[in-house]
Write a structure and sequence with these properties.
The chain is of the alpha/beta class and 299 residues long. The strands form 3 sheets. The chain has a 7-stranded mixed beta sheet with strand order 1-2-3-4-5-6-7, with helices on one face. A 6-stranded mixed beta sheet has the order 8-9-10-11-14-15. The chain is globular, with a radius of gyration of 19 Å.
Length: 299
C-alpha cells in the first residue's frame, strides 16, 4: 500500500524487492495482475526503466480507481498539495488538482500584485485562496492546450476574478466545442471562449514576469510550453521521464517528438521542467535529465 500512496521512489532498486512489494500491494486491490507484471517486467532492465515502470503502475492504480477499495486511499492519492519556488518577488506554486493528477501552476509577481494560473483543472477555491495569501490578483488564465482535463476550472476562475483566458489559436476551438459527454468524463465544466490567442514567439506578461510561448504541436495541434527565467512549463508535451499521448484527435507522435527535440531539448540543461501531470517519480525534472534518462527520447 505504501508503494504508491507515499510517492516514495527511492527505497527500491532491484527487481526481486520490487516484485515482493508489488505482490503485497496487490492483495487488497481490485486490479488485474497483468497490469502489475507488465510494469514490473521492465524492472529487469535496471533502475532507470524501473522508475518509469513504477510510475506507470501507480498511474494505473488511479485509472482503475482502487481508492474505492482501500479505506483512506482517496485522500492519500488525490489530495491537493502545493510547493513553491521564489525568485526576486516572483513565485511559482505547483498544485496537483482533480482526479487526473493535473499540475496547475500559480505564477505571480508580488511586487505588482499580479498573477496568472496555468491549467486550472480543479480546486478553484484553493487556487484563489493561495493567490490571496500571496497578496496577488489572478489576471490571466493560460491553457497549455485545450483538452478537457486542463480547462475545467477556466469558467469559475474567470467569473470570480475577471481573468483573461489565453490559449494557442490552434486549440481555441476546443474551449467552446468540447462535447459535454467528454467534459463529464473529467468532472470538468464548460469553458468560456478565449480572450487572447497566442502564437509561437509571443510573450505573456504579468508585472515583471515574462513567459515566452513556444509552440509544441503533437499532443494537440495547439499545445504550447511556457519558458521563463530557467523554468519551462511543459503541459502534456513532456513529463518526468515520459511524454504525452498522441492518440487523441489532432495528435501526432512524430510531430510531438520533433517538437520536444527541436523546441525543448534545445533549452539549457539546467532548465527546470514543470510538467502538466504528476505521472513521474518526482514533481519536477530538468531538460538535461530528460535528455539523458527519458526512455522515449533515446532514439
Amino acid at each position: 500500500e505504501k508503494w504508491c500512496l507515499t510517492r516514495d521512489f527511492k527505497d527500491f532498486s532491484g527487481y526481486p524487492a520490487v516484485k515482493t512489494k508489488a505482490l503485497k500491494a496487490l492483495k487488497t486491490r481490485t486490479i488485474p495482475e497483468r497490469l502489475a507484471f507488465e510494469a514490473l517486467s521492465e524492472t529487469a532492465r535496471g533502475r532507470k526503466i524501473f522508475m518509469s515502470a513504477k510510475a506507470a503502475f501507480c498511474k494505473g492504480l488511479r485509472v482503475f480507481e482502487v481508492k474505492k477499495s482501500i479505506p483512506g486511499a482517496k485522500e492519500a492519492v488525490l489530495d491537493s498539495f502545493a510547493t513553491s519556488s521564489r525568485e526576486e518577488g516572483m513565485f511559482i506554486e505547483q498544485r496537483e488538482v482533480g482526479n487526473m493528477a493535473v499540475f496547475s501552476y500559480l505564477v505571480g509577481d508580488e511586487k505588482t500584485q499580479e498573477a496568472l494560473v496555468i491549467d486550472p483543472a480543479a480546486d478553484i477555491e484553493g487556487i484563489i485562496k493561495s493567490a490571496a495569501d500571496h497578496g496577488v490578483k489572478i489576471t490571466h488564465i493560460v491553457n497549455t492546450h485545450g483538452h478537457a482535463d486542463h480547462i475545467g476550472g477556466n469558467g469559475d476562475i474567470k467569473r470570480k476574478t475577471g481573468a483573461d483566458i489565453i490559449i494557442h489559436e490552434a486549440d481555441a476551438d476546443m474551449l467552446i466545442h468540447t462535447p459535454i459527454e467528454v467534459l463529464e468524463m473529467f468532472d470538468a465544466k464548460p469553458s468560456p471562449p478565449a480572450d487572447r490567442l497566442v502564437r509561437d514567439g509571443d510573450t505573456i506578461e504579468i508585472g515583471e514576469v515574462k513567459l515566452q510561448v513556444i509552440h509544441t504541436p503533437g499532443h494537440s495541434p495547439g499545445s504550447i510550453v511556457l519558458f521563463m527565467n530557467g523554468y519551462v512549463f511543459t503541459g502534456d508535451t513532456l513529463f518526468v521521464e515520459a511524454v504525452g499521448r498522441t492518440d487523441l484527435p489532432g495528435g501526432s507522435w512524430e510531430t510531438m517528438l520533433n517538437s520536444i527535440k527541436t523546441r525543448l531539448l534545445t533549452l539549457p540543461d539546467e532548465t527546470i521542467v514543470l510538467p502538466g501531470h504528476n505521472y513521474g517519480r518526482s514533481q519536477t525534472s530538468t531538460i538535461g535529465h530528460e535528455r539523458q534518462y527519458n526512455p522515449f527520447l533515446q532514439y
